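Structure first, sequence second, as always.
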C-alpha cells in the first residue's frame, strides 16, 4: 500500500543510472551502452527509495536501449516487483544526437564553442548535424527497429523532434494505462523524459534549456483531471539530487 504522503502520485519517471558513456562524457544518443557499477548502484537506490516511500506499480514502460532496461530491472528487483508487465518502445529512446554521437562533450565545446554545443544539447528546436543514411548511426540496420518505417527513424533530433515522437506513445500507450487507473513507472532517458516533463509540467520552450534530469533519481507526478502535472517532486536525498544535477550541468563546462 502506498504511503499516505504519495497515495495520489500515480506516475513516476526515472532516468537510467550512469552509463559507461556518461562516465566518459560522450554523446550517447541511440548508441547502446551499458551501465557502470555506479549506474547499477543508482538504479538499485532508486528502487529502494520508491519502496521506502510506499510506491507500488502496475506496469512499466521503457525504451529499447539496454541502459534503461537494466535500470528498470534493478529498480524493480529492489522493490520485489520483477513480475510486473513491461512495455518497451523505440519512441522512449534517447534523443538521436546525429553526428555528435560518440563525440566527447568537452572536445565538442573546444571545436564548436560552448554556446553552440549548449544549443545542440539543450535548446528546444535546434538539432545537431544529421548523420548520412549510409552511416552506422542511422538505425535502419538494427533489427530492434525492423518494423519501424524508415521515414520515422531519426538521423538527428532536437528536443522538439523528441517530443513529437514521444507524444504519440504517451497518448496511445501510457495515457490509456493511467486512465484505466494503473500506477505507471516510465524508465527512459534524459531527453525523452525531458520532453515528457515539458508537456506534463507546461515548461516553456525557453525554460526547458535549463532543465536537467539527474541519473537514477525518481520523479513522482500527481496528475489532474486533464492528466497534466498537479504536483511533481523528486524523491530521495535533496543533497544527492543537487549533486547529480550539477554533474549533468558540468558535462560541457570548460576546465
Amino acid at each position: 500500500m502506498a504511503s499516505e504522503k504519495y497515495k495520489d502520485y500515480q506516475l513516476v519517471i526515472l532516468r537510467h543510472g550512469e552509463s559507461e558513456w556518461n562516465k566518459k562524457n560522450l554523446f550517447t544518443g541511440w548508441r547502446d551502452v551499458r551501465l557502470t557499477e555506479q549506474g547499477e548502484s543508482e538504479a538499485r537506490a532508486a528502487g529502494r527509495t520508491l519502496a521506502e516511500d510506499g510506491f507500488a506499480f502496475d506496469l512499466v514502460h521503457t525504451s529499447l536501449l539496454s541502459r534503461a532496461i537494466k535500470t528498470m530491472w534493478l529498480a524493480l528487483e529492489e522493490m520485489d516487483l520483477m513480475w510486473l508487465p513491461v512495455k518497451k518502445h523505440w519512441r522512449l529512446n534517447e534523443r538521436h544526437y546525429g553526428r555528435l554521437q560518440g563525440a566527447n562533450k568537452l572536445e565538442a565545446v573546444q571545436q564548436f564553442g560552448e554556446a553552440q554545443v549548449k544549443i545542440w544539447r539543450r535548446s528546444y528546436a535546434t538539432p545537431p548535424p544529421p548523420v548520412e543514411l549510409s552511416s552506422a548511426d542511422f538505425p535502419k540496420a538494427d533489427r530492434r527497429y525492423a518494423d519501424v518505417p524508415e521515414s520515422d527513424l531519426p538521423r538527428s533530433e532536437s528536443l522538439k523532434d523528441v517530443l513529437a515522437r514521444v507524444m504519440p506513445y504517451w497518448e496511445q500507450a501510457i495515457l490509456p494505462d493511467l486512465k484505466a487507473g494503473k500506477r505507471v513507472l516510465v524508465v527512459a532517458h534524459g531527453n525523452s523524459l525531458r520532453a515528457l516533463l515539458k508537456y506534463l509540467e507546461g515548461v516553456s520552450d525557453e525554460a526547458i534549456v535549463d532543465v536537467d534530469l539527474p541519473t537514477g533519481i525518481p520523479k513522482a507526478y500527481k496528475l489532474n483531471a486533464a492528466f497534466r502535472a498537479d504536483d511533481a517532486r523528486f524523491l530521495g536525498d535533496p543533497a544527492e539530487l543537487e549533486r547529480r544535477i550539477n554533474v549533468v550541468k558540468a558535462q560541457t563546462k570548460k576546465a
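Margin note: DSSP finds eight helices and six strands in the chain.
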